[in-house]
Amino acid sequence: MLSIIVPTLNEQQTIETSLSALQPLRRHGVQVIVVDGGSEDNSTRLAGPLCDNAIVAKRGRASQMNAGARQSTGDILLFLHSDTVLPEGALEAIDQALTAPGCVWGRFDVKIDSPLRLLNGVAFMMNLRSRWTGIATGDQAIFVTRDAFERIGGFPAVSLMEDIALSKSLKRLSPPACIRAKVTTSGRRWEKNGIVRTILLMWRLRLAYFLGADPSRLADQYAHARRDA
């Protein structure tokens, strides 16, 4: 069985739409768990009727997703951002991907929902980079067998780059399955902060992370840059 874990924080504008898209999967036995990081809006109340379990955990995607994994019952875990929608046939694609010998995890290609055409190129480069490096981003809907997730100890307790850290650990177990079907993620952060500004910020933070910078300091820099945008 598949368990989908959705971390949220102040997502009342989008959470009903995002979870409504998962209802057909729930009718096929997929478990949906929403993990709120202490929203100050109505996110948790709106999510309640549209998921199997809505819980509150320490703020931070890593801690929230780990909390959701502990509450889940599926033998496959999928971590889905609250502004990302799965493609049709996602469940079958995951099942097929994990039948490959030795494969324990994977991710989808991504497209960005935005009228800004340049973001088509951004998504293309994200997918290409992921195939080349074997590193997945949270926007790509990472999925993993429960056994593999528990073997690596789940998401590391970091404030940023938790998706990269998880990917690096999982790569030691197997290469990722790269599903060409595309999840659709919101382009709102790009539209709000600016495409070039966002690209340069993420490149700088990723480089700093790979050079050994403290993820908590990088998280502070990321939050500060978003406030100033």
From TrEMBL:
Residues 3-116 form the Glycosyltransferase 2-like domain. Keywords: Cell membrane, Glycosyltransferase, Membrane, Transferase. It is found in: Cell membrane. Its main location: membrane. CDD domains: GT_2_like_a (cd02522). One of its GO terms (cellular component) is plasma membrane. Pfam families: Glycos_transf_2 (PF00535). Gene3D superfamilies: Spore Coat Polysaccharide Biosynthesis Protein SpsA, Chain A (3.90.550.10). InterPro entries: Glyco_trans_2-like, Nucleotide-diphossugar_trans, Trfase_2_rSAM/seldom_assoc. GO terms for molecular function: glycosyltransferase activity. This is TIGR04283 family arsenosugar biosynthesis glycosyltransferase. It comes from Bradyrhizobium sediminis.
